[in-house]
Specification:
Largest sheet: 7 strands, mixed
Helix content: 40-55%
Distance between the termini: 80 Å
Structural class: alpha/beta
């Protein structure tokens, strides 16, 4: 049986460009490769590791046994000895057998990129839900890597007396792990139902939801703090935010929305994390508007945008309306402004969350985009239209009501266009929606 070596905090990075998997053509994509390696090193530092050296290489395809060839294994062994490293991190996904075979050859702990991201998530999770999601992702990842080194799972329920007839140690570990996974899924399902109740209440109140999305470390949490005067944790590191935060956002013109700060995306986000964080990502899926935050100072921002688009498509949120927010313009020299389409619709806003530049323009653009698909205006209701008045209040569509001397009401409406159309078919109210502002002379009390 195989016992895994202990790990430490001095990491040797191994990044091999596999052309078959990366889709890069021969002799091209050098900038992409360098960006991938820089991001991998930043991931390691975000996990609290000291990067001692980076071993690079290129192959047409990985080997089945060790992922790399014997010559590269010897190069890694020499680098380990020279820098006294105690863990090897591979920038690609390794199979369970490749991890074990490499650890036998190198006599140090070997982890792949997915394991590193899972470790960062485990460090960052703060809320009860976040910790449950991370543990579920870890156990799902672990289920394919069960060897004798994982028998610590027995501590959850004890070992002696629990093993079934003819059950091996590995089978016991797998059974205990599956029981824990089922329990975690049950707890997360309860949290998901609670989140759905919250979303349902927000929907009944008519308050739209705006979700911040973007590549990790694009500045979403800093922008969230600037927009809402909150102090959620923000740092210049990957995956600083894991747990979603919801706050009320006041908009120009007296409107309001719920702003959600969500986990950052990354290229090839591990499937275990996407599945485990699906309830959190539902805030993105059911939002009325996505603020796609892009690091304007990132040379690879277009590739990052494509990576985020891939994740959004993967969770079914590709059709949610999107407003681009180019952040960190203080590093690029761009001016704060709104870019509009030919029809005048806001498409992108340039801001600096750190310096509070362009925030007013962003709020203006959000208000404009959220007003699309909504009907608003002043409606005159005579005393005989009490049923319609009751339906409007039940739909929470009334912003303000003013009463005239003859008993009629001037009602300021703001509601979804689909709800307005439904009431219009029943009551033909569009004929009476004639005021941009109520005539002051007609108002006697409010």
């Amino acid at each position: 049986m195989f016992e895994r070596p202990d790990s430490g905090d001095r990491a040797l990075l191994v990044h091999i460009d596999i052309r078959q998997d990366s889709g890069r053509v021969e002799g091209g994509g050098v900038g992409d490769i360098e960006a991938d390696r820089a991001e991998f090193a930043e991931l390691a530092r975000s996990a609290g590791l000291e990067v001692t050296d980076v071993v690079t290489g290129s192959r047409l395809r990985p080997t089945a046994r060790h992922f790399v060839g014997t010559g590269k294994i010897e190069e890694i062994r020499l680098a380990l000895a020279a820098h006294e490293s105690d863990v090897v991190l591979f920038g690609q996904r390794l199979s369970p057998s490749q991890e074990r075979n490499l650890e036998r050859e190198l006599d140090v702990r070997v982890l792949d990129r997915n394991s590193l991201i899972l470790d960062i998530f485990a460090q960052r999770a703060r809320t009860f839900e976040g910790k449950l999601q991370v543990e579920l992702a870890q156990l799902t990842h672990l289920s394919t890597r069960l060897v004798r080194g994982w028998t610590h799972l027995e501590r959850q329920k004890g070992g002696i007396g629990l093993r079934g007839p003819g059950e091996t140690q590995l089978e016991t570990d797998r059974r205990l792990l599956n029981e824990r996974v089922r329990m975690l899924r049950k707890r997360l399902e309860k949290v998901r139902r609670q989140r759905e109740q919250g979303r349902s209440q927000r929907g009944k109140s008519g308050i739209p939801t705006v979700a911040l999305v973007g590549y990790t470390n694009a500045g979403k949490s800093t922008l969230f703090n600037r927009l809402t005067d909150e102090r959620v944790y923000a740092a210049d590191q990957l995956f600083a935010t894991l747990d979603p935060t919801l706050r009320r956002l006041e908009l120009p013109g007296g409107g309001a929305a719920v702003l959600a700060d969500t986990v950052g995306f990354i290229r090839d986000l591990p499937h275990e994390l996407v599945d485990a964080f699906r309830s959190t990502l539902t805030e993105t899926l059911e939002a009325d508007l996505l603020l796609h935050v892009v690091d304007d100072a990132d040379e690879d921002r277009e590739a990052r945008r494509a990576d985020v688009a891939d994740v959004l498509e993967g969770i079914g949120a590709a059709e949610v309306p999107e407003l681009l927010v180019f952040n960190k313009i203080d590093l690029t020299g761009h001016s704060a402004r709104i870019e509009r389409s030919e029809s005048g619709e806001p498409q992108a806003v340039y801001v600096s969350a750190a310096r509070n530049e362009g925030v007013a323009e962003l709020l203006e653009a959000i208000a404009e985009r959220l007003s699309e698909g909504r009907r608003s205006g002043w409606l005159r209701l005579g005393p005989e239209r009490g049923r319609l008045r009751a339906q409007l209040f039940e739909a929470r569509a009334v912003v303000e009501e003013r009463v005239e001397s003859d008993g009629a009401s001037l009602v300021h409406l703001d509601m979804e266009a689909v709800d307005f159309a439904r009431l219009d078919r029943e009551h033909r109210i569009s004929d009476d929606l004639v005021f941009d502002e109520p005539p002051d002379a007609a108002v006697v009390r409010s």
